[in-house]
């Protein structure tokens, strides 16, 4: 994780999902990697998929062992899920959704812009990103399911 130094009124990490708190530099050098900066959302979960598929793992079986994507074959439109102690976050093209964990008083979700200001059109963001929120729910249940 990153650290925030009052850029958006917060100090440290796990208090929100600003880029200062969730972005981590990642450098890769090797066959198949073109020099440049990747601006699409990525995740630490992408590393196993990238390494194992570079060594011959079948991409069709990826869903059985990771939620990540291969960085050598990035998808154009992608959401990125992040987590803190009390919230899940979902980066989308419409904004950053913050979902309170463990709530007992209903479904507590807010949408913020990239500057961590509450988005003016909450309902519009929900309407545009319903499918992504559904995926977040399914992935969370899969990851958090008791074994």
Mean pLDDT: 80
Unreliable spans are: none
Share of helical residues: 10-25%
What's the number of helices?
4
Which word captures the global form?
globular
Largest sheet: 4 strands, antiparallel
**DSSP strand count:** 6
Describe the structure.
With 147 residues, the protein is α+β, with helices and mostly antiparallel strands. It folds into two domains: 104 residues, no CATH class; 36 residues, no CATH class. Helix content is 24%, strand content 16%. The chain has four helices and six strands. It has a four-stranded antiparallel beta sheet, covered by helices on one side. A hairpin with a 5-residue loop joins strand 1 and strand 2. The chain is globular, with a radius of gyration of 16 Å. The protein starts with a strand and ends with a helix. The mean pLDDT is 80.
List keywords for this structure.
single chain, globular, 147 residues, two-stranded antiparallel sheet, alpha+beta, 2 domains, 4-stranded antiparallel β-sheet, 4 helices
Summarize the structure.
Helices cover 24% and strands 16% of the residues.
Helix-strand blueprint:
Blueprint: E1 4-5, E2 11-12, H1 19-22, H2 46-54, E3 80-83, E4 87-92, E5 95-100, E6 109-112, H3 122-128, H4 130-144
Antiparallel strand pairs: 1-2, 3-4, 4-5, 5-6
């Amino acid at each position: 994780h990153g650290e925030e130094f009052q850029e958006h009124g917060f100090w440290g990490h796990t208090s929100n999902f600003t880029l200062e708190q969730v972005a981590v530099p990642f450098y890769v050098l090797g066959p198949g990697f073109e020099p440049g900066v990747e601006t699409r959302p990525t995740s630490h979960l992408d590393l196993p998929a990238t390494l194992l598929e570079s060594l011959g793992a079948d991409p069709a079986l990826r869903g059985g062992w990771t939620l990540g994507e291969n960085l050598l074959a990035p998808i154009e439109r992608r959401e990125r899920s992040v987590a803190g102690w009390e919230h899940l976050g979902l980066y989308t093209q419409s904004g950053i959704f913050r979902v309170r964990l463990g709530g007992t008083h209903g479904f507590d979700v807010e949408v913020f812009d990239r500057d961590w200001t509450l988005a003016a059109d909450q309902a519009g963001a929900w309407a545009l990103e319903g499918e992504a929120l559904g995926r977040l729910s399914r992935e969370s249940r899969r990851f958090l399911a008791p074994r």
